[in-house]
Amino acid sequence: MSRNYFISGGTLDDGSKKDLYISEGKIVGYQNPANSGAQVIDASQKIILPGLVDLHTHLREPGKEDSETVLSASRAGAKGGFTAVSAMPNTSPVADTAGVVEQVLRLGVEAGICDVFPIGAVTRNLDGTELSEIGAMADSAARVRVFSDDGHCVSDPAVMRKALEYVKKFDGVIAQHAQDPDLTVNAQMNEGVVSSVLGLKGWPAVAEEAIIARDVLLVDHVQSRLHVCHVTTAGGVEIIRWAKARGINVTAEVTPHHLLLTDELATSYDPVYKVNPPLRTEKDVHALREALAEGIIDIVATDHAPHPAESKECEWQEAAFGMLGLETALSIIALTMVETKLLDWQGVAERFSRTPARIGRYPHQGGQFKVGEMANLTLFDPRASWRVDRDLVASRSRNTPFHGMELPGVISETFFKGVPTLLNSALVPQLHVEDKS
Ligand SMILES: [Zn+2]
Questions:
Q1: Residue numbers annotated as active site
Q2: Residue 365 domain-assigned?
Q3: What pLDDT, on the 0 to 100 scale, is given for residue 69?
């Protein structure tokens, strides 16, 4: 597909105005050359961000295609402004071998809507005891650099140490789901006032914080790279602040839902609010927003976790953990971080594109709009708003906690490798069908 596009009148994330001429997948200049035949895209009301990069996505394929597929998640990603997502390995089979990560990579290339970077499991079958084929996954066609047992914590400190040491060979990173399993047996929600009122088993903040504290000490000891997935507590923020002040090589993420929602929502008993790690308190939400603004928490990641209706439309205790995130992420960040003046758009671009691309060592993502770069970018109107409708999502699942909410920021186009994925119905056919319904 060798079409030319001229994006006219847009405002880049740093506030400057720049026209972009895109040809053969790349940004080749800032003017529309005579006789270019370029399709002109009016971006005069739009902000242009480098394409969003999600470091934490559950695509569910292989094995759980009733929840999501690589194709449907890629569509949801494009609709949400993403040009790259990262496939968490808790699939069936688990992505703990070169064969499975290469399969996921291939599915992503076939979908062709955004980059799909497979994340490899740290331990075999996520069982926490024996390291997976980390080296083979790193050397495979998928060139895996991020490893995680997400959904499970690598709780054995000796195993965690070995994994951190192993990934140093190829500049990899261990992304930890920080949750002490012994402190969270049968936990259902945040441990606090609300959990005692509801009589649901609580999930104490210390279960997360104790692992973060241990891991920053471990990574300092072996001089490797640690990434803390979905930080949810004010105390966790303080430990990461302490580690960074000491020069420890740690990065951290926060999800959009933990920047907005609190454990009070559990009083509805609606399992759409059941998520791992759990929604915390107002005080935590405040601390997380401040930490993201300050850069103590480096990035936003969605933890997009699709589940079929039968896993969510049931009793709280039986329901699966997780929420959709891809299609609403940028709007939730606009609401919680930009409208509150905690971040400007450049701050959003750093935390939701450039820094996650750097952490994952993802090529051709998180760009600076320079001539010669791959054209991976997102156009959106910050003044427009939309209403979330779970029946109109591109995802195969409908478990969004934001259903019915009016949110700021409407994405008008996502360019992946120079191709407008939303405009191009051959790439994202369902979006157009669904938009009409
Ligand atoms: Zn997780």
A1: 303
A2: no
A3: 97
Ligand 1 centroid distance, CA of 202 (Å): 17
- 419 alpha carbon to ligand 1 midpoint, in Å? 32
Q: Count of domains in the chain?
A: 2
Work out the pLDDT band at 402, boundaries 50, 70, 90.
very high
Q: Which amino acid is at 365?
A: Q
Same domain, 105 and 155: yes
| pTM metric for this prediction | 0.96
Ion ligand 1: residues, CB < 5 A: 150, 177, 229
Q: Which domain holds residue 207?
A: 50-360
DSSP calls for 385-413: EEE--GGG-SSS----TTTT-EEEEEEEE
| Residue of 202, 207, 218 whose CA lies nearest to 168 | 218
Cβ neighbors of 322 (< 8 A, separation 6 or more) are 58, 274, 275, 276, 303, 305, 306, 307, 399
Cβ 95 vs Cβ 120: under 8 Å: yes
Ligand 1 midpoint to CA 28 (Å): 39
Helix-, strand-, coil-residue percentages of the chain, each rounded to 5? 35, 20, 45
Q: Which residue has the tokens 């157009």?
A: 432
3 state DSSP class of 8: strand
Whole-number Å distance, alpha carbon 109 to ligand 1 midpoint, is: 25
Q: Which residues contact 333 (CB under 8 A, 6 or more apart)?
A: 256, 259, 300, 343, 348, 352
Task: Enter the tokens of residue 135.
Answer: 């080296």
Cα-Cα-Cα-Cα torsion 90, 129, 253, 255, nearest 10 degrees, comes to 40
Residues composing the chain: 437
Decide: 251 and 228 in contact? Cβ < 8 Å. Answer: yes
CATH code assigned at 118: 3.20.20.140
**Tens-digit pLDDT profile for residues 212-234:** 999 999 999 999 999 999 999 99
**Tens of pLDDT, residues 85-136:** 999 999 999 999 999 999 999 999 999 999 999 999 999 999 999 999 999 9
Q: What is the CATH number of the domain that holds 28?
A: 2.30.40.10
